[in-house]
Amino acid sequence: MIVITGATGTVGRPLVALLKDQGVAVRAVTRSAEVGKVPAGVDVHRADLARPEDVASALEGASALFVHPRAVGESAAKLLALAAEMGVRRVVVLSAINVDDDPAYQPSRLNGDRNKEVEAAVADAGLPWVAVRASSFATNAIGMFGAQARAGDVVRAPYANFAEAPIHESDLAAVIARALVDDDLDGRRIPVTGPQSVTHQEMVAVIGEVIGRPLRFQEVPPELAARGLVANGLPEAFVDALLARYARDAGKPARVTDEVERILGRPASSFAQWVADHADAFRAVAS
Fold it and tell me: Most buried of 103, 195, 230, 247, CB within 10 angstroms?
């Protein structure tokens, strides 16, 4: 039995589905009631991960545990101590490729992420462990460009030449699944990325090519972009840190690794493939 925390999120959903398809017994732990996001036949356990008494029964008979840092947060050490008591034999944690950077350079911390602390708790728990350090999720492109692409042919954003190596959530799930069921990755901190560095402007061009409707990228001043992001509900401190990251790294290629191919025996999915898998998020809605 493998226990998955954050089971209804961007990574948890494909991870649960993949393990089930591989014939692995899976228990999905979620604090939400969104059972419809979990494949039929998967054991769903609703729990508040900050409360050990809620989680203990989910860990009964578990051989491995996937720790999602946003789902677990500050309760990581408590959860891992409980897992060890319950006989869990392997822990895999999702982390971030920039986890060792200065915390001031990690915008996600201002959204509550504690990747470094959760990864450290996993490594210090006394169990065999793997940390999968992911690059930017390709799915972030929906939030950045989706609404504008659906509304018209011009996509406005700051820092046209800021680049990332976005990873397909299915590739990330496949690497995590491998780490959960095999021991050959134990003790590793694995940086996983998409197969290429792609700028904001190039992402928009790829989206247009895939959906069959040319899109034009228009660069806007950071100040204007910041006002729009805050107006859409993002915390101002997070927006400031995000745009500062864009400014620092604009014009630099993103880090690209071959770990996905080395682990899975096939190339990582391109950004174009990811767009094809999510094309409806960018296509105009018929009136």
Answer: 195
* pTM to 2 decimal places: 0.94
Handedness of CA 66, 28, 178, 97 (dihedral sign): negative
Span 114-124, pLDDT tens digits? 899 999 999 99
**Residue 38 tokens, joined:** 């979990």
**Rounded-to-integer distance, Cα 174 and Cα 264, Å:** 8
The amino acid occupying position 130 is V
Cα distances from 106 to residues 85, 113, 115, 118, 189, in angstroms, run 33, 9, 10, 15, 18
Q: Are residues 161 and 204 in contact, defined by beta-carbon separation less than 8 angstroms?
A: no
The residue among 205, 197, 192 whose CA lies nearest residue 250 is: 197
Q: 194 near 140, Cβ under 8 Å? A: no
Structural domains for the chain: 2-134 (3.40.50.720), 140-165+196-253+270-281 (3.90.25.10)
* Residue that the structure tokens 């700028």 belong to: 199
CB 92 within 8 A of CB 109: no
DSSP collapsed to 3 states, the chain: CEEEECCCCCCHHHHHHHHHHCCCCEEEEECCCCHHHCCCCCEEEECCCCCHHHHHHHHCCCCEEEECHHHHHHHHHHHHHHHHHCCCCEEEEEEECCCCCCHHHCHHHHHCCCHHHHHHHHHCCCCCEEEEEECCECCHHHHHHHHHHHHCCEEEECCCCCEECCECHHHHHHHHHHHHHCCCCCCCEEEECCCCCEEHHHHHHHHHHHHCCCCEEEECCHHHHHHHHHHCCCCHHHHHHHHHHHHHHCCCCCCCCCHHHHHHCCCCCCHHHHHHHCHHHCCCCCC
